Amino acid sequence: MELINLIILVAAILLLVSIFTSLISFRIGAPLLLIFLGVGLAAGEEGIGGIAFDNTPAAFLIGSVALAIILFDSGFDTRFSSYRAAAWPALTVATLGVVITTSLVGVAARYALGLSWLEALLVGAIVSSTDAAAVFFLLRVGGITLRDRVRSTLEIESGTNDPMSIFLTISLVELIASGGTGSPWHLALLFIWQIGGGLLFGVAGGGILILTINRIRLEPGLYPVVSISLALFIFALAATLGGSGFLAVYVAGLIAGNAKLRGGQSLRRFHTGITWLSQIVMFVMLGLLATPSRFLDLFVPAALLALVLILVARPLAIWLCLAPFRFTANETTFIAWVGLRGAVSILLAIVPTLFDLPNGQLYFNIAFLIVLMSLLVQGWTIRPLAHWLKLIVPPRIGPVDRVELELPGQADYELVAYTIREHSPVVSGHRLPRWARPSLIIRDGHVQTVHSVRQLQAGDLVYLFTAPSRVALLDRLFGETRELVEDDRQFFGDLTLKADITVGALAELYGLPLSVRNARLTLADLFRQEFRDAVEVGDRLRMGAVELIARDMEDGELLTVGLALEPATPAAGFRIPVIPRPSDLIQAIKASRSRFQFRLWQRRQRRADRIARRQLEADAKKRE
């Protein structure tokens, strides 16, 4: 009994320490998941805690459950609009990109560690996938506001590349265990069933989850429990029948999260909390499982493999996979750099030990070191790199809190809260429409009634009831600050135009050059034509001396366009790309060839001039 109480006490202490040390992460900009790993290492048998934990089956079980919950929440918070913006590039990176990364890291591991080809490829497969927890934390909690297509690509890739990495790892482990006698056809059929089965169970499970939550009347507190229980059921059932449980639980979360669910906001809050708990438990547990003294002998080869992964394998895979899509060189560079490795790689490194393969501990130690280096090098530099590459977009300030109301019938209302900003329109006397009048105001910590407040002031916290469709309109009334106005002007231009005006009318108004075939197109049609129906906020078109910028969109339709009267010159926004696009390389080759031909022509001209001068001098001497 005392032992059980002691275990509970230690577990609670580790959780609390992990939570409170996260404050350090936010202050110094350290990757939060690195802090959790550090807590586990410090509490382990070679740390100050002295906790001996070497139960790899239990670690794999706990880690699999935690990862399933994290992936379910990742899918639950991903909008279908993200797939419309970046499905094909993200899925290409999540499949072909994983294979390319595995191959390149495998070649490096073959020579750095002296392993056989199958064992070296196994090392590549273990570290081939980006970590969903690390990427989602950086993009959603880390305060980095990226362009939609870049953010969507990273989110979808990190949520969907685990099945491919897991398939490659388990297939290679089985091949090594069988002495390399596995049939390629068997592996191909296994892959098809894993991906197809995962999708099938995910779609069916998402539908069941929606029906269960919306049709069955339960106590409100039970709905979050039902959602997590069904998510784990979908994961386990798909995995038991040979499908990819991780893909199934992600797809189920994606389908359920994009449907209207009873108590949807409460579900999201619960999922956020249980996901944080899962991340802390998984990273701390994996830190406990590690033995730092064994890292010293492997530090140099692990560092070499980490460099190959970060600087060669991941960038080359991203460059090849995104080449057919319309990404800029800076966007490709950033996506290549946000290839954070995390708990998934360490979890997969346990699999060889479960199969009693030789070098099982080697895989774990190498993967652990690579994850540490990835979090240290990449995790600490993502925000500065995003600023340097000019990929940060102005944030859209929304409500500080939203509470979904359970009302009888078909009534659909929410209670939303806003903190009034210093330069909000309402502070300057903008009259509020009838549907946007606050129900409650908190000023200086004191509750004020609506009738006792004549004018809203900066710093007021206002609560009001509204339909969800009107929240975007409320953002414009309550959420604007001076900093946002300046960022808006720099990013979206000096003027705002409606997207339904014609190109001809705009050209006539500002004296711009005009192509006759584009004269009758609206600005929305012009953007749609240029970007092949994949328009997103921030896309730009040059039109003579001005620049048109996609500004506001709703349901994939362009509503307003920014007009930059004095756009920055290309040189002002130039950044040296780490990974140029193929089109950039072709242009550079053509330019180099042109320069070479010009220099060759110059040399020929100088040679001809020298010959002509010598001939003239010789003729002059003869005449003398």
Automatic annotation (TrEMBL):
GO terms for cellular component: plasma membrane. Its main location: membrane. It is a multi-pass membrane protein. Residues 488-567 form the Transporter-associated domain. Keywords: Antiport, Cell membrane, Ion transport, Membrane, Transmembrane, Transmembrane helix, Transport. SMART domains: CorC_HlyC (SM01091). The chain crosses the membrane at residues 6-26, 33-52, 58-76, 88-109, 121-143, 164-185, 191-214, 273-292, 298-322, 334-355, 361-382. InterPro entries: Cation/H_exchanger_TM, Na+/solute_symporter_sf, Transptr-assoc_dom. One of its GO terms (molecular function) is antiporter activity. It is found in: Cell membrane. GO terms for biological process: proton transmembrane transport. This is Potassium transporter CPA. The lineage of its organism: Bacteria, Pseudomonadati, Pseudomonadota, Alphaproteobacteria, Rhodospirillales.
